Every structure is written in C-alpha cells, then in structure tokens.
Amino acid sequence: MSGNRGVVYVAPGKVEVQSIAFPELVEPSGRKANHGVVLRVVSTNICGSDQHMVRGRTTAPAGLVLGHEITGEVVEVGSDVTTLQTGDIVSVPFNVACGRCPMCKEMNTGVCLSVNLARPGGAYGYVDMGGWIGGQAEYVMVPYADFNLLKFPDREQAMEKIRDLTCLSDILPTGYHGAVTAGVRPGSTVYVAGAGPVGLAAAASARLLGAAVTIVGDVNKVRLAHARKVGFHTVDLSEDASLADQIAAILGEPQVDCAIDCVGFEARGHGHSGSHQEAPATVLNSLMEVTRAAGKIGIPGLYVTEDPGATDAAAQRGSLSVRFGLGWAKSHSFFTGQTPVMKYNRNLMQAILWDRIKIADIVNVQVITLDEAPQGYLQFDSGVPKKFVIDPHGLLAS
C-alpha cells in the first residue's frame, strides 16, 4: 500500500482532493511512533471547525490536510501497541493525547501537554494543534493508539450503525460535553445557541440527560425547520422579537436553567438588521441574559486566539466585548475549551448501539464520496441542515 489521497486546504474558500503521502508511524517531530497505528478511513466528517479554517478565519497554512473526525479500520500496528490488531474498527477522538502526562491522567485529553510543542492540546488536521496530519483521506496515522482509540465490540454491528457511530469522534461528545458542563439534568429547561450539527447534538444530549424542554436558536430558517422536525422547540433570531421574549412565549418566563453556546466566534447579531452582521460576543452576552441566576453556561463553540478575518482589531486578537459583569452579578459558571472526547465516547457508543439516541437522523447525516468533499464544503458553508460524512472507500455505500 503506497497511495493515499486527502482533502487539502488551498486558499480561503477553496479545498482540493490531492495525492498525499501514505502515512508512516512517525510523529510530526520526526520521532518514530511505534505506539501508533495506520487506519484505512471508514468515514470522516466535515466539521464546522474545519469551515473556520477554509473561510480564512484562522492562520491555517495552505497545504494543510484537513479532518479531525475519523472512524477507521486498523491496517498497520506499531510494535508497542498491545490492545489492537488489524481489522479492528475504531473511533478516533479528535483530541490527540499521549495518555501519560498529568492532564491525560486526569482525562483532560483536550489539553494534553505532550503532543503539541506550541500549546496544550493537539488535534488532527487543525491549525496550531501540533502538526498531526488530518483524516479526510483514505489513510491516516493515529499515535498512542492503545490510549486514544475506541474499539467497537462487533465489526458487523458497527458497520450497521456506522452513520451514527461516525459522530463519536467529535460532534456527539462535544454536544454532550456542552450539556453536561451546562448542568443539564432531569427536568431542566435548556437553551442551545446554534442549529448546526453540534447544536443539534447538544440538544439531543440534553434530551438524553432528561431535559424537560430544549430550545434551539439560530438565524437560519432551514436549519430551524429541521430542528423542529426532530422534536425541538426553536426560536428564530433573525426576527426582531428578543431572545428573552421568544423563550417566554415557550416557557412562560424569559429564562432557562441551562444554556449552551454551539456557535462560537463567527456569531452574528440578532434581529432583521443584525442577523447578517458579525457580532462575535453576541451569543455569550445573550446567554448571560437568559440564564437564571447561579446557572451554568457550557461553551463548546470554538473561540480562537487569532482571527485574521475579524471585523475589529480586538477580535483579531481573540478579545471580545463580553459583558462579564453581568455573568458575575448573576453568579454564572462558564465552562470552555476543547471537549475531552474520551470522557464520554464509550458511554455514548453504548447509547448508540442500544438505540438510546439516533444521532445520525438528528444531525441529518449525508454520505458523500471523497471526490465530492469540495462540494460538501460549499454546501455546508451555505447553511444546509446536513452533516456531511465522507466515505473514502465506498464502505458506507456498500
């Protein structure tokens, strides 16, 4: 095996499927990775975080191989790997983690101290995340495989549910992390900002955790229609009615117990005049307004340290006009950062395998070929209510 192809970031607004090197058991530093495996990619998903890079809103370099949501089949095993063998079907947490540092030992795998020389935390195919090659490709290398990989217990069962299980690498644990850190519990009223795939995964997670009412807000009417179709209440933030008033129309009061930000730094303003203008702090500020006193706000939405496409100089440095005093006055708790996928993925796998959650239907998975990936990026960026899943080898189609 020597051929490989992957989705490569070329320039703002442009990705291409190109020939890339077949993966070797080598770390970005050049050190031998006998702890790793090579996977034949079974499925790999387009994520909203990828779109931030493709829009030119990060410092991602041209030539970056994209893709951090990966499910695969083991085809090569490093000499130090003891728990996996060729033929195993596995889910890859988007966090690259060593399993040995203090953060990994506490299962804070989103901020592993060993896999990225520049800062805590690593990820596949992502800017400033350690140089690990992305998995929107035919083959990919995964390091520290014994620690990182979640092996599915039965190959046939896994392939039957692969449209759901592909969501375990990122969006389902990320949505679940948002719900957990927002304090969702049985009987909670929950507001989720953002009706994209992560927002819908957060809403589904809130329902799984026993929320009484889950409300999803967005400015995209098509995505809101899909959210209603799969059973959630919605508020339309392109309308002039305030978020608090729209919540009150549903709950009878203008506040919720818990709130989850699944939008991040490319947020837009509310109302007819504001919904087409960027306002990167608007979601955080609105969540503080509608979350009850002493409530929690989970923030799985992405915020970056540098945003070259921001509308003002402060936002370009990651500085936002957040009404922190309001959150302080209401004794809010905020929880941010990359999701530590391994805290949740095994239990969420069981929820999928035992039909406790139908996440592929909720996020509207659409399977495409590797060659269709550039068109998938364009469609996703247009705001369609779909989660694009790339099938590099035609295994899902068959």
Architecture blueprint of SSEs:
Blueprint: E1 5-11, E2 14-19, E3 37-45, H1 48-54, E4 69-77, E5 89-92, E6 95-96, H2 102-105, E7 122-123, E8 139-142, H3 145-148, E9 150-151, H4 155-160, H5 162-165, H6 171-181, E10 189-193, H7 197-208, E11 213-218, H8 221-229, E12 233-236, H9 243-251, E13 256-261, H10 282-290, E14 291-299, H11 313-316, H12 324-329, E15 333-336, H13 345-353, H14 359-363, E16 365-368, H15 373-381, E17 387-390
Parallel strand pairs: 10-11, 10-13, 11-12, 13-14, 14-15, 16-17
Antiparallel strand pairs: 1-2, 3-4, 3-8, 3-17, 4-5, 5-9, 6-7
Helix pairs in contact: 6-7
What can you tell me about this protein's structure?
It is a single chain. With 398 residues, the protein is an alpha/beta fold. It folds into 2 domains: 5-170 and 340-390, Medium-chain alcohol dehydrogenases, catalytic domain (Quinone Oxidoreductase, Chain A, domain 1, Alpha-Beta Complex); 171-336, NAD(P)-binding Rossmann-like Domain (Rossmann fold). The protein is built from 15 helices and 17 strands. The strands form 4 sheets. Strands 3, 4, 5, 8, 9, 16 and 17 form a 7-stranded mixed sheet that branches. The longest helix has 12 residues, at 197-208. The two termini are 22 Å apart. Keywords: Metal-binding, NAD, Oxidoreductase, Zinc.
Short description:
With 398 residues, this protein is α/β, with parallel strands linked by helices. The protein contains 15 helices and 17 strands. Strands 3, 4, 5, 8, 9, 16 and 17 form a 7-stranded mixed sheet that branches. Strands 12-11-10-13-14-15 form a 6-stranded parallel sheet, with helices on both faces. Strands 1-2 form a two-stranded antiparallel sheet.
